[in-house]
Amino acid sequence: MGYSAKYHATSMIAVFLALAIGILIGAEFGGDALTNTRRDLERSLTGNLQDARDRADELSAELARSDEFASGVYPALVSDRLSGRRIGVLALGDLPGETSTAIEDALGPTGARLVGIGVVREPVDLRGLAGDLSKTRFAALRRDPEALTAFGVGLGRQIVRGGTLPELVRGHLFSRASGNFGALDGVVVVRDVPEEMGSVQRSNASRLESALIAGIAGTHTPAVGVETSGAEPSSVSFFNGNDLTSVDDVELAAGRVATVFALLGAKGSFGVKGSADRLLPDLLPPVGSESP
Q1: What pLDDT sits at residue 1?
Q2: Which one of 36, 37, 229, 259 is most buried, counting C-beta atoms within 10 A?
Q3: Which residue stretches of the chain have pLDDT < 70?
């Protein structure tokens, strides 16, 4: 990813150099001395621009080779690391296609089973949920924030361990869902909040999100919040604020490795963004093996 950053920086330099050349060419210079100076500067800047382009091409090719190597090594590194484990994906707000594909790619060689995917509807349908829960202790969640929190914690716990709540509220809780939750060995959390929510809607969504994470965490089951390196705005601060291990580059080979090892119990904030502690967790030994 360092190569990628250098490539973008070099590209920006090239753009500014090109702009400088355009400005100089279009400027009105008077006198032979100024004309000669302009021509000399044009030649110098043109040479610098070509050098920058050549360097950008070199870095791009280097990055492509690096990505090819990482993608080739990845399956061997994570092969059967999660063999037989049941993994669920809980998306808050939305589940972007790129992120969904990256999660599936990360789990593919590990032997894990992706058994349930749920996208929590945002804005939260409090009216519908209250109707589903009318005969439970959470019936007042529409007007009582504490009831909404209690519901979220209980729901998060049952998503992992199993229970009646997820199925009871499935229609009004999820905008889309597949498979089944319960008896999970790991949870991948994605967060993509709609921008058009009002302040009250955003507050309710945030309360439910944090409660869900708290319920999941209370089961002591490995969980990791993931996003792609280009996700804007980033949700890493939300993940970290709720004591959730995070990976901010799940579409990259390093991010896939970090996701797998987070599901094995690694803790921290991993990735390529400024909020990350480091690129990768310590590579844990396979389950059942002895440490050297």
Answers
A1: 43
A2: 259
A3: 1-36, 38, 40, 54, 57-67, 69-70, 284-292
Q: Would you state the pLDDT for residue 2? A: 43
Q: Which residues sit opposite 189 in a β-bridge?
A: 90, 225
Residues 6+ positions from 24 with CB-CB distance below 8 Å: 38, 41, 42, 45
Confidence (pTM): 0.77
Report how many domains make up the chain: 2
87 shares its domain with 160 = yes
Tell me, yes or no, whether 56 and 128 share the same domain: no
pLDDT in the model for residue 69: 63
Amino acid at 185: D
**Nearest Cα residue to 93 out of 201, 166, 167:** 201
The full DSSP string for 145-203 is HHHHHHHHHHHHHHHHH--SHHHHTHHHHEEEEEE--SS-SEEEEEE---TT--HHHHH
Tell me what pLDDT residue 59 has: 65
pLDDT at 126: 97
Which of 40, 58, 76 is a domain's end point?
76
Q: Please tell me whether residues 70 and 87 are part of one structural domain.
A: no
CATH of residue 198's domain is 3.40.50
For residue 243, being part of any structural domain is answered with: yes
**72 φ, ψ (degrees, to nearest 5):** -70, -35
